[in-house]
Amino acid sequence: MSNIMYIFLLGLCIQVSAQSYTAVKDIESLKAKITATNKNTTSIQSSFTQEKYLSVMTQKILSKGFFWFKKENAVRWEYTEPYKYIIVLANNKVQIKDEEKKSEYDMASNKSFKQINDMMIQLVQGTVFNSGMYSFQFKENAQTYFIELTPIDKKLKTYFQKINLFFDKITFDVTQMKMIEVGGDYTIIKFSNKKLNQPIAADKFILK
Fold first, then answer.
1. Which tens digit of pLDDT belongs to each residue from 6-50?
2. How many folded domains does the chain comprise?
3. What is the CATH number of the domain that holds 179?
4. Distance of CA 137 to CAs 33, 119, 132, Å?
């Protein structure tokens, strides 16, 4: 996997809670509620913390930053600690800024970037159920719905073993994600201070 793709994937993932989960009894109702909630979500602004666990390291890699999402399919991940790094995906372009160095890639000409971007949008919006790219297990505890996704798409299976989504049982939006890579390494991200359907300026998705 290229360094760029690795960093891109690094910006996407969350740790399974130690709390026990039981199987969801009415899966179709849950899917309908999540889908309805995300149809009404036009934008997301959030802080996030990220923990990266690598088998070759004894300590986790901790990062912090901000996340923006705006329909249709504009995303910005901005890392502020311990380094400054920005990834913007919008208008079929991938823009990356590492400190003062900027790069741009055509997403349409790179099938891997496009597939990962589409997946990310589906995960954030909770619209993955009809993608045909995963099998699902639905679980819950008192506060959270936990949905485990196992990739069945050939390309995604080369990247991930499992993808876990955590939904708030009141708001039905994604609060956490976890992606477990094929080699067993995984990345964890928790969203906090989330604001939904607030105006986001268009230039937030243009790197300067």
1. 445 544 443 333 458 899 999 999 999 988 888 888 899 999 999
2. 1
3. 2.50.20.10
4. 16, 18, 14
